[in-house]
Amino acid sequence: MNIHFVEVTRENWEECIGLSVTDDQEDFIISNCESIFQSKFVENCFPLCIYNDSEMIGFLMYDIDPETKRWELSRLMIDEEHQRKGYGKQALLLLLKQLKEKIGSIIFYTSVEPENNTMKNLIKSLDFIETGEIMWDEEVFCINL
Questions:
Q1: What is the pTM of this model?
Q2: What is the mean pLDDT of each run of 10 residues along the chain (145 residues)?
Q3: First-to-last CA distance in the chain?
Q4: Are strands 55-64 and 71-78 parallel, antiparallel or unpaired?
Q5: CA-to-CA distance for 1 and 138, rounded, in angstroms?
Q6: What is d(CA 137, CA 12) in angstroms, rounded to the nearest whole number?
Q7: For the residues of the chain, what is the DSSP string, one character each?
Q8: Which domains, and CATH codes, for the chain?
């Protein structure tokens, strides 16, 4: 497994928006197209394609929330053909490592739909903790980097 990130570019954006999750996951995540669009008009959004070797397998975006000013994971998706292989966990581990190296010690946040147990289990396995907050009708979690 060789997980790495590549910025969304003119060369890869169409492949990125062609990635999809399973039908039962569609209510949990905004499309990659909408996320990329958002990143062009909202400051401090960082969209990244997730690759395993030379194959694009997913997408994530992190940002500084304009309201709370907190660093956060705002999107994570692994294409349905590549799920259940550990790629999501490896991508998050890599992102957390890179953020700690780039930014230093911060509290990093994410929010999860209450019914999205797969994502909740994933982030809990990485030591994210529940904050007790609800934002955008989602449960908020954080980790100290």
A1: 0.94
A2: 96 97 90 96 96 98 95 97 96 98 96 95 97 95 97
A3: 24
A4: antiparallel
A5: 31
A6: 32
A7: --EEEEE--TTTHHHHHT----GGGGGGS--HHHHHHHHHHSTTEEEEEEEETTEEEEEEEEEE-TTT--EEEEEEEE-GGGTTSSHHHHHHHHHHHHHHHHH-S-EEEEEE-TT-HHHHHHHHHTT-EEEEEEETTEEEEEEE-
A8: 3-104 (3.40.630.30)
